[in-house]
């Protein structure tokens, strides 16, 4: 009997303002097995907030799902990790990769790569509080600490602290002078550093992330790493994930169509709308469904024009399917 394929083999990256629960529900209709990550949630939002459901609630259909936490206090992160475990998350992920000024001002994200001892302490505290995996998403470095030796030292310390899995964005983060968008494109990709890391830490699961857009690229990376995390391509071209279950998880289920996905979104939109949610908050995530296909522009225009109307309901999906 063969072991089941780990969910981290293919995952969708945490993306602020994008991977909310509505997008995750939508992408789950396309792939049942890829690991999904929440947007980053700060420890302050959880511990000082009055409505944790707003930040932490998710649909049972979203499993397997990881909660990404942002913070720099080992004690606070451990407390939030326990809350996340109690909510039913399958993994706790620590953000040590985001380069935005907003994150840096809180002394967490990519700037923590300069403090491997602190990150190791964060991992150890979280591991002491939860039974689910504790993982770290990080860069290959930051300006000033960008050598492979720096990266090796960082990973060595968090491995000793008990980290279960590293997700490595194969670019350094430049902490001053570049926007988060520029930090996703300007620093060159150094995939070889991630491959070397896996060679040096053979017993530590390592997922590679950064600039990956096609199945050909995914298959190449999987020969050198344990998993592949897809970021913007998953959002811009979500139907890329239509083949994920069969290609990487051995699923024998039948093929899906874009139209069947839209059909399955109808009751979800209705449920959210009846609970007071806005139709546009859901349907903004589907605009890339026909990426690269004939009629893609018309599809985007149809929903962009209609979903923001105060009268918009799930009938906009029904009307499109009946055209």
UniProtKB/TrEMBL annotation:
Domain DUS-like FMN-binding, residue spans: 12-317
Pfam families per record: Dus (PF01207)
Alphabetical keyword list: Flavoprotein, FMN, NADP, Nucleotide-binding, Oxidoreductase, RNA-binding, tRNA processing, tRNA-binding
SUPFAM superfamilies found in the cross-reference section: FMN-linked oxidoreductases
Single GO molecular function: tRNA-dihydrouridine20a synthase activity
Active site: 98 (proton donor)
Record site feature (Interacts with tRNA), residues: 95, 181, 184, 297, 300
InterPro entries: Aldolase_TIM, DUS-like_FMN-bd, DUS_fam, DusA, tRNA_hU_synthase_CS
Catalytic activity: 5,6-dihydrouridine(20a) in tRNA + NAD(+) = uridine(20a) in tRNA + NADH + H(+); 5,6-dihydrouridine(20a) in tRNA + NADP(+) = uridine(20a) in tRNA + NADPH + H(+); 5,6-dihydrouridine(20) in tRNA + NADP(+) = uridine(20) in tRNA + NADPH + H(+); 5,6-dihydrouridine(20) in tRNA + NAD(+) = uridine(20) in tRNA + NADH + H(+)
Cofactor(s) annotated in UniProt: FMN
Membrane spanning residue stretches: none
Binding locations of FMN: 14-16, 68, 137, 169, 209-211, 231-232
Taxonomic superkingdom: Bacteria
EC number per UniProt: 1.3.1.91
NCBIfam families reported for this sequence: PRK11815.1 (NF008774), yjbN (TIGR00742)
Role played: Catalyzes the synthesis of 5,6-dihydrouridine (D), a modified base found in the D-loop of most tRNAs, via the reduction of the C5-C6 double bond in target uridines. Specifically modifies U20 and U20a in tRNAs.
HAMAP family given in the database record: DusA_subfam
Membership in a protein family: Belongs to the Dus family. DusA subfamily.
Record-given protein name: tRNA-dihydrouridine(20/20a) synthase
Source species: Leptospira biflexa serovar Patoc (strain Patoc 1 / ATCC 23582 / Paris)
């Amino acid at each position: 009997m063969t072991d089941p394929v780990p969910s981290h083999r293919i995952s969708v990256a945490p993306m602020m303002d994008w991977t909310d629960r509505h997008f995750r529900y939508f992408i789950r209709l396309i792939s049942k097995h890829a690991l999904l990550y929440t947007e980053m949630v700060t420890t302050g939002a959880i511990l000082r907030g009055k409505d944790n459901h707003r930040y932490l609630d998710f649909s049972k259909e979203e499993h397997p799902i990881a909660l990404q936490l942002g913070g720099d206090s080992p004690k606070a992160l451990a407390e939030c990790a326990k809350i996340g475990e109690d909510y039913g998350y399958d993994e706790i992920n620590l953000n040590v990769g985001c380069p935005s000024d907003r994150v840096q001002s809180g002394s967490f994200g990519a700037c923590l790569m300069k403090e491997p001892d602190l990150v190791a302490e964060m991992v150890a505290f979280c591991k002491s509080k939860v039974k689910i995996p504790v993982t770290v998403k990080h860069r290959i470095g930051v300006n000033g600490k960008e050598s492979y030796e720096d990266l090796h030292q960082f990973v060595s310390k968090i491995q000793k602290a008990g980290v279960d899995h590293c997700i490595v964005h194969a670019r350094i983060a430049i902490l001053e002078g570049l926007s988060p968008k520029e930090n996703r494109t300007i620093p060159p990709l150094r995939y070889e550093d991630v491959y070397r890391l896996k060679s040096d830490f053979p017993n530590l699961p390592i997922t590679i992330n950064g600039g990956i857009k096609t199945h050909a690229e995914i298959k190449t990376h999987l020969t050198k790493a344990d998993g592949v995390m897809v970021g913007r391509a998953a959002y811009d071209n979500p139907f890329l994930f239509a083949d994920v279950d069969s290609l990487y998880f051995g699923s024998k289920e039948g093929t899906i169509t874009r139209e069947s996905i839209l059909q399955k979104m109808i009751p979800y939109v209705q449920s959210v709308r009846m609970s007071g949610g806005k139709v546009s908050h859901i349907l903004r995530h589907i605009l890339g469904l026909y990426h690269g296909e004939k009629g893609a522009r018309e599809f985007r225009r149809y929903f962009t024009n209609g979903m923001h109307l105060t009268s918009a309901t799930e009938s906009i999906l029904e009307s499109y399917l009946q055209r």
